[in-house]
Each structure stands twice: as structure tokens, then as C-alpha cells.
Amino acid sequence: MCSHQPSCPTSEATGSHVVSAHPEQGWSLLCDGSIVFDDSGELLADGRVVEPHRVPLAMAA
Q1: Which of 1, 7, 23, 44 could form a disulfide with 11 if both were Cys (CB 3.0 to 4.6 A apart)?
Q2: Does the pTM exceed 0.90?
């Protein structure tokens, strides 16, 4: 999906660029084909799901 050079890293790495942001719906499409959600969950290009990994507010303080 990514056409720029140098190519983006795989979905396992970080550094992919947002190609379509939909903050009103809570998600963004990355150039590697992954979808990231505002709740920190992800749907990777290969179909794997990454559960949200937010830190509870009580633990963050």
C-alpha cells in the first residue's frame, strides 16, 4: 500500500505515516495498511488484532 521511498516499516515496527485520519470516528489508516484506534487498539494489515493497552487513570498519576 505504501508508495513513498524509503518504504515504511512493517506493521510490527513503528514509523508508518497516517494516510487518512478520521478523528470524529476515532481511527486512522496508516500507509502500511494498519488501522489505529483512539483507544490504543489496532487492526494490523495482516488481520491480527492488538487489544487496547491503555494505562488505568489511577495508575498513571
Answers
A1: 44
A2: no
Region label for 26, one of left (φ > 0), alpha (ψ between -120 and 50) or beta (otherwise) = left
Q: What share of the chain is helix, strand, coil (3-state, %, to 5)?
A: 5, 25, 65
CB 26 within 8 A of CB 38: yes
Tens of pLDDT along 17-52? 889 999 999 999 998 889 999 988 999 989 999 999
Cα separation, 58 vs 37, whole angstroms: 22
Closest CA to 18 of 33, 38, 3, 40: 33
